[in-house]
Design a protein that fits this description.
52% helix; 9 helices; two-stranded parallel ribbon; mainly alpha
């Protein structure tokens, strides 16, 4: 297990070095400070040759640096969400209190909704669900241990399948159901898979986007391992949905609508991909022409889990009704 005290000491030293490098690049001409200096010098004389200096412009505040703990806490928010969804689907109950209540931010978050799925008619999906649930719970425990006193507590989470729940809101927005219909991911193995599909690709792309920003090699190795596990989960969900979609094409269609909705929510262009390509062939690995999975930044991830299509509400909504507990939730973690 990672000694979180040593890891956070490494993190602090790495942050100091990174800040120094950024300061050097800006002064040397690679950043906004150097450009601002050139602009100020050129503005010391007006077009008429007057030597009266123009007023010094008010400097733009420099945003706080994104730290490794910020990045891992963003991941922990998502792990709380996924763990609660899968554990409720498998057991009818969620994470133990000792894995949710303590930590920074708003403590003692609650879970709205969640129910046990009847997997008796589909033993394969039930087996997958149980394994993924155990993995997600382990990810929560691992990240909390690695972050130590910097770990966030679980925020309020909505995984309800009723008419006013986050899943119904997401399904309505995607056009999977009608404006007055309800989507319950716990009502069948197929609906459970669609609920899992909504989350899994988001987790993979979030880890992919955040990993290059980690300074600590200890944390980077851990994040790479979790990313690999999440990619296995996403691959399982996509594969089983595609296989079931051979007999029930509506499942593939629904997955495609969810992908389109994620694109609309993250406002990052047409990057998300459904279960089939433009030629109708299977598309089980959503990747670019080089077979590299794309990235999402923090703002894009929050827009999806908040169901925030307009980008106007940065404080919460959807699956996190009161927002995440990430201290730098609105920073663009993952992409420039």
């Amino acid at each position: 297990m990672i000694d979180h005290r040593k890891a956070l000491d490494l993190l602090a030293a790495a942050d100091t070095r990174r800040t120094a490098r950024r300061r050097f690049l800006k002064v040397a001409g690679g950043g906004t400070l150097a450009l601002g200096g050139v602009s100020l010098l050129s503005g010391c004389f007006d077009s008429g040759g007057s030597d009266a200096p123009n007023p010094t412009p008010t400097p733009t505040p420099t945003p706080a640096a994104v730290t490794d703990s910020d990045i891992l806490n963003l991941a922990l928010n998502l792990e709380y969400l996924e763990a609660q969804f899968y554990l409720y689907a498998v057991n009818g109950s969620g994470l133990a209190a000792n894995l949710t209540a303590s930590g920074t931010g708003t403590a003692g978050g609650s879970v709205t909704g969640g129910a046990k799925v009847d997997f008796s008619g589909d033993a394969l999906v039930g087996a997958y669900a149980r394994e993924i649930a155990a993995d997600e719970a382990a990810h929560v425990a691992f990240l909390r241990a690695a972050l130590g006193s910097a770990a966030i507590a679980m925020p309020n989470i909505n995984i309800s399948g009723d008419a006013s729940g986050a899943f119904t809101a997401a399904a309505r927005a995607a056009g999977v159901i009608g404006a007055s219909d309800t989507f319950n991911p716990y009502s069948s193995p197929e609906n459970f898979l669609l609920g899992a599909y909504l989350f899994e690709d988001v987790g993979v792309t979030a880890y992919k986007g955040a990993a290059p920003l980690l300074s600590s090699k200890v944390f980077l190795e851990a994040a790479a391992g979790i990313l690999a596990a999440e990619a296995y989960h996403a691959g399982l969900v996509r594969t089983v949905l595609y296989a079931k979609g051979i007999a029930t094409p509506a499942l593939v269609t629904a997955a495609g609508k969810i992908s389109d909705a994620r694109d609309a929510l993250d406002q990052g262009g047409d990057t998300d991909q459904g279960l089939t390509g433009t030629n109708g062939a299977a598309n089980l690995v959503p990747a670019d022409a080089d077979a590299i999975v794309y990235s999402r930044n923090s703002r894009q991830v929050h827009n999806i889990v908040y169901l925030n299509a307009t980008g106007a509400n940065q404080n919460g909504g959807g699956f996190f009704p009161n927002g995440t507990n990430n201290p730098n939730a609105t920073l663009r973690v993952g992409l420039p």
